[in-house]
TrEMBL record:
Keywords linked to the UniProt accession: DNA-binding, Transcription, Transcription regulation
Alphabetized Gene3D superfamilies for the sequence: 3.30.450.40, Winged helix-like DNA-binding domain superfamily/Winged helix DNA-binding domain
Protein source organism: Streptomyces spongiae
Record's protein name: GAF domain-containing protein
Matching InterPro entries: GAF (IPR003018), GAF-like_dom_sf (IPR029016), OmpR/PhoB-type_DNA-bd (IPR001867), Sig_transdc_resp-reg_C-effctor (IPR016032), WH-like_DNA-bd_sf (IPR036388)
Residue runs in coiled coils: none
Pfam families named in the record: GAF
OmpR/PhoB-type domain sequence ranges: 256-322
GO molecular function, one term: DNA binding
One record GO biological process: regulation of DNA-templated transcription
Length: 441
């Protein structure tokens, strides 16, 4: 059932579906164009813009995306070919083509697959539709991240990590507004990390709820195929796989099982992974607790619970240590930085290490990793890498990165944000910055 809004507009019962069956797409487009103009001119969101779209418009505006912008092509020719060949989603492209190819060709649609940064890896489908898409750079190698081109299904799907449908004037950039698309993220079946998204792009007919369910089913099939193609031995008793970046509760793959650790257990496993030789009880106590009144009994109780969770064969004592090697996303970023692979390190960095943790040793490690990566990004002076960091939640107030970005890509938005940060730095204590642009609501 559809509920009526105070203005008499019918509201969607599922906020992730763009257009319910029976709705007039022409009328909806008219209303959305008016709402889009109101937002770009005054920063206000009007009905009946869905909350997922309104939130995306706000993120797009904060990222400095302009409504008349266009996507940039980052990877071409050999670089694109080698990057695609090494990407995990290359292994499931035959399945994606089998499930989506005929539907795309017969319906004059496109199937597309992007990576976790919103870069298009494959765009295939009806020849005439491909030619139209080429005119807006919806092509392999182009960057369709939300922070680069605003609201769009594949870019927004990887940004919010869930299936999403974007209809017509819900797109932030005007030249994309004749299109409708639906996309769903694809995850690594072992770690849960977002690898990219599968997308179907075409005309208004794709605003039907079935297209959203379709791409979600394809994404789940791709994840199942990846699980079958990845031998369990690679993540079984020989190695533990730890994911701790960008999340307060780490994930640990043990014997093919993915375990979500508590916050304290996450801190313990991260620290033990850093010290394969083991840590004494006193060393762990100092590493985990700022409060010196915490007793060894408290720590032993936490370790006993962790041992029951992992199994006695995996957690040793005297000293406390993990009994098998650990592969972690933290180590991946560090290795890539050490070898100068800055782009690879930035790609693997999905956020600060256990961002909510106050454990002293975790705080030090979190800061050291972030500082090492941001220093490398500033030295590299790659505008896209700098923009990714600056527009991420952890980089919005990073003055040094914004200075570097404004130097290599001096857009009006970058210069304005830099002025804001520099004025905040120069302001006296207790000074509250007033907004310099309309505040969306």
């Amino acid at each position: 059932m559809r509920a009526a809004s105070p203005s008499g507009e019918a509201e969607l019962t599922d906020p992730w579906v763009a257009l319910e069956p029976g709705a007039d797409p022409i009328e909806r487009v008219r209303v959305l164009r008016h709402a889009h103009e109101a937002f770009t001119e005054a920063g206000t969101v009007e009905r009946p813009v869905r909350s997922v779209v309104a939130d995306s418009w706000r993120r797009s505006a904060r990222a400095g995306v302009g409504p008349d912008g266009t996507a940039s092509v980052e990877l071409t020719d050999g670089d694109l070919g080698s990057y695609r060949a090494e990407h995990p989603l290359a292994r499931v492209m035959p399945l994606v083509r089998e499930l989506m190819g005929t539907f795309a060709a017969d319906g004059e649609h496109l199937l597309a697959v992007c990576d976790a940064q919103g870069r298009m890896l494959w765009v295939e489908g009806h020849p005439a539709t491909l030619r139209r898409a080429d005119r807006m750079n919806f092509v392999p190698g182009a960057r369709w991240a939300e922070s680069a081109v605003g609201t769009n299904a594949p870019g927004t799907a990887v940004a919010v990590d869930r299936p999403v449908q974007v209809f017509a004037a819900e797109h932030f950039i005007r030249r994309v507004q004749p299109w409708t698309c639906a996309a769903a993220p694809v995850h690594d079946p072992r770690t849960g990390r977002v690898l990219g998204a599968v997308d179907i792009t075409g005309g208004d007919g794709l605003a039907h709820p079935h297209s959203l369910g379709f791409v979600q089913a394809v994404a789940r099939a791709a994840e199942s195929q990846l699980a079958l193609l990845t031998p369990l031995e690679t993540a079984a008793a020989d190695t533990l796989d730890l994911t701790a970046l960008g999340r307060d509760e780490a994930h640990l793959v043990v014997d093919g099982r993915r375990i979500r650790l508590s916050r304290r257990h996450s801190e313990i496993v991260v620290l033990l992974a850093r010290h394969p030789e083991g840590l004494t009880g006193d060393e762990l106590l100092c590493a985990l607790y700022e409060d010196e009144s915490v007793t060894p009994v408290t720590l032993r109780a936490e370790l006993a619970r962790l041992r029951r969770l992992l199994g006695p064969a995996l957690l040793g004592s005297r000293p406390y240590r993990l009994m098998v090697p650990v592969e972690s996303d933290v180590a991946v970023v560090e290795r890539r930085l050490e070898t100068g692979a800055v782009t690879g390190a930035a790609t693997a960095y999905s956020g600060p290490l256990l961002p909510g943790s106050q454990a002293p040793a975790v705080v030090r490690l979190r800061q050291r990793l972030a500082d090492g990566l941001r220093t490398a990004l500033i030295a590299r002076r790659d505008p896209d890498l700098l923009a990714d960091w600056a527009h991420a939640p952890w980089g919005e107030d990073d003055l040094d990165v914004w200075r570097a970005l404004a130097a290599v890509r001096p857009t009006a938005a970058a210069r304005a944000r830099l002025r804001e940060l520099e004025s905040e730095l120069a302001a006296p204590p207790g000074w509250a910055r007033q907004p310099t642009r309309p505040t969306p609501h």
